């Protein structure tokens, strides 16, 4: 029998560390992936993931079972990522190590030629750069939709706005990304 997230959170609130460990196991990859796609920084995404789960544990008593746990968790991660981006703007730094890790993490197909792999890597970089140029709420909405596969309702709960606002944010984000890529003479048909 699978225990619901809500029941696990009730157990966490009572000090059950095994329940907390199950929550972490269920969501650690999704939380890391979201933070990574949003921040494009492997080490900071790891830090944000750990901080998010610490906040889940610390705030287990504040969690209300009427809330959908997944969106509550993404709201925590979103706020941590927003704070990270604000801190970055104050202390602008570029890490060569992070750029190298980004290139190394790119998965190549053994069936593709070196030229095709290069084109894929360049396209990935262009799309990520285009996403980074979006306003913060559009970045969050498009990353949650395209990389984390959340539906509009879940994204609305994370962003604390209406579904129509989410649809609008995602539509504007896609249009902006297409415009940026077309200006660079690239067309990304999946958006």
Topology diagram in text:
Layout: H1 5-13, H2 17-39, H3 42-58, H4 69-90, H5 96-105, H6 114-132, H7 136-146, H8 152-159, H9 163-183
The number of distinct β-strands equals 0
N to C succession of SSEs: HHHHHHHHH
Q: What does the average pLDDT come to? A: 83
Mass-distribution shape: globular
How do you describe this structure in short?
This protein has helices at 5-13, 17-39, 42-58, 69-90, 96-105, 114-132, 136-146, 152-159, 163-183. The protein is mainly α. The chain folds into two domains: 1-98, Rna Polymerase Sigma Factor, Chain: A (Orthogonal Bundle), CATH 1.10.1740.10; 106-191, Winged helix-like DNA-binding domain superfamily/Winged helix DNA-binding domain (Arc Repressor Mutant, subunit A, Orthogonal Bundle), CATH 1.10.10.
